[in-house]
Amino acid sequence: MSLVTLRVALARAEEGGYAVGAFNVSSLDQAIAVLDAAEVERSPVIVQSIAGMSAYADEERWWKRLRRIIDDYPSVPAVLHLDHGRTYEDCARAVDCGFSSVMIDASREADGDLPASFDDNVALTRRVVEMARPHGVSVEGELGTIGGAEAGIAGIAENIVFADPEQAALFVSRTGVDALAVAVGTSHGSVKFTDESGGQRLRIGLIAEIKERLPDTALVLHGSSSIPAEAVAVINAHGGDVRPSYGVSPEQKSEAIAHGIRKINQGTDSHLAWTAAMRRFLGENPAVVEPSALLAPAVDAFREMVATRMREFGSAGRA
Ligand SMILES: [Zn+2]
Predict the structure, then answer these.
(1) Between the CA of residue 247 and those of 33, 149, 261, 268, what are the distances in Å?
(2) Which residue, of 103, 108, 151, 160, has the greatest Cβ tally within 10 A?
């Protein structure tokens, strides 16, 4: 089984009524943690990387290593996905490195934070679909703009535009994307909502409306980490300074799945778990310099967070 396209993985999720978690990794240790979790949970998984966000200087070597590592897990149906490609070139490089799926995020203007016009978004997304399809690579597009610290954008973007169901149907028919990220009230990054109700404001009705018009397109939820308060507290108790905030609760995500979401991006939660475990270890063992000693708790915490999300999304036991 091993490497599969996003289209195949999400079509199975549609049949089974669950969602597949998409986990951002920036090092090989993190990719191993994600794939170990998938193997143990017998879950399909999406391993994703953002251009320019890894521990390594040579991105093509890093991406090709990510591709090869998936072959070590023959029992795991794994999608290797480019998250938030901002340019055609990013997507073409990922295809060359063997990714089975790319996201082209043309929902914002390439040089900034402003929402792109619908026609510009369609044009660039269509070009990427035409490039990727002959290689058997799936494409995810984005409609509307999702708030928060989106890739390459510092701080919290104010320009949140919700997805419009009619435009969504038009966007899919004009571009031919396999999956669509919809802005339905989530927010990117480690600081999401400053009040508890913020994460409860997912527009479930809007998801259902879009789903009704696009029964054959997989819908994707971005910016939907839960921001566990324990992890933030551990980080801040050991020298960190992460502003406490509220994310999207597991219950809200379950409801989103029930209304048609099939891919859930979960970058921040496992990053918080990793950082908390490493900071705690270093705080409690200030004399230790052995890398294996300080990496092991971080890898364990990353894997456990990913496994928890797989169970919550209903993908565990589906491989
Ligand atoms: Zn995103």
Answers:
(1) 23, 13, 17, 10
(2) 103
